[in-house]
Specification:
- The complex is a heterodimer of chains A (about 110) and B (about 110).
- Helices cover about 0% and strands about 55% of the residues of chain A.
- Chain A contains no helices and eleven strands.
- In chain A, strands 2, 4, 5, 9, 10 and 11 form a six-stranded mixed β-sheet that branches. Chain A has a five-stranded antiparallel β-sheet with strand order 1-3-8-7-6, with no helix packed on it.
- Chain B has strands at about 5, 10-15, 20-25, 30-40, 45-50, 55-60, 65-75, 75-80, 90-95, 105, 110-114.
- In chain B, strands 2, 4, 5, 6, 9, 10 and 11 form a seven-stranded mixed β-sheet that branches. In chain B, strands 1-3-8-7 form a four-stranded antiparallel β-sheet, with no helix packed on it.
- In chain B, a hairpin with a 5-residue loop joins strand 5 and strand 6.
- The radius of gyration of chain B is 13 Å and the shape is globular.
- Classes of the chains: A mainly beta (about 110), B mainly beta (about 110).
């Protein structure tokens, strides 16, 4: 399986609820990044968390990283219909020109 | 924030023809550019990594003679799909990285080979 595995594969919630997505990986990393992709579009960078960081916030986003469990979570608080998209985690092992390895993604649907 | 553009945004071509896709970093110099391929409802798969002025590094299973990559300047990389076939139909996305860690992605190019 890929370096990044995401859970759940699909998540459907109501507007105003919180959405939590998880990502697990296998090898040591330099950093982990979360991206959002609207259908048929490019990726938008959301947040980067380094291996020596445990938690990071950006607006309604909260990312945690547990290197001992090789896992990360993305929490979107007070979700909006506009948050509907696919969310991918990507790991940077810090080698080979900092290539990213993407997880399978979580399809989030926020119902109005 | 950093902006990466791709051109064209979509292309339809006949089987056997070659298609060139451009990736440009508009407001920063990209030391490294990456090319990804994405099939419907799947994740991104890295095809190759290119550094300005040097040969691209291709991922295992990606044919370098079929997917020609040229990184002629710090703001431009091109991917040419040679002798395209229907199985090459996909969504191709580039990303660019400067000295910092973040990769910035282009909007993607949808290729349909008939």
């Amino acid at each position: 399986s890929q370096q990044g595995e995401e859970d759940p594969q699909a998540l459907s919630i109501q507007e105003g609820e919180n959405a939590t997505m998880n990502c697990s990986y296998k090898t040591s990393i330099n950093n982990l990044q979360w991206y959002r992709q609207n259908s048929g579009r490019g990726l938008v960078h959301l947040i980067l968390i380094r291996s020596n960081e445990r938690e990071k916030h950006s607006g309604r986003l909260r990312v945690t990283l547990d290197t001992s469990k090789k896992s990360s979570s993305l929490l979107i608080t007070a979700s909006r219909a506009a948050d509907t998209a696919s969310y991918f985690c990507a790991t940077d092992a810090g080698t080979s020109g900092s290539r990213l390895t993407f997880g399978e993604g979580t399809q989030l649907t926020v119902n109005p | 924030g950093a902006v990466v553009s791709q051109h064209p945004s979509w292309v339809i071509c006949k089987s056997g023809t070659s298609v060139k896709i451009e990736c440009r970093s508009l407001d920063f110099q990209a030391t490294t550019m990456f090319w990804y391929r994405q099939f419907p409802k799947q994740s991104l798969m890295l095809m190759a990594t290119s550094n300005e002025g040097s040969k691209a590094t291709y991922e295992q299973g990606v044919e370098k003679d079929k997917f020609l990559i040229n990184h002629a300047s710090l703001t431009l990389s091109t991917l040419t799909v040679t002798s395209a076939h229907p199985e090459d139909s996909s969504f191709y996305i580039c990303s660019a990285r400067a000295a910092w860690e973040t990769q910035y992605f282009g909007p993607g190019t949808r290729l349909l080979v008939l």
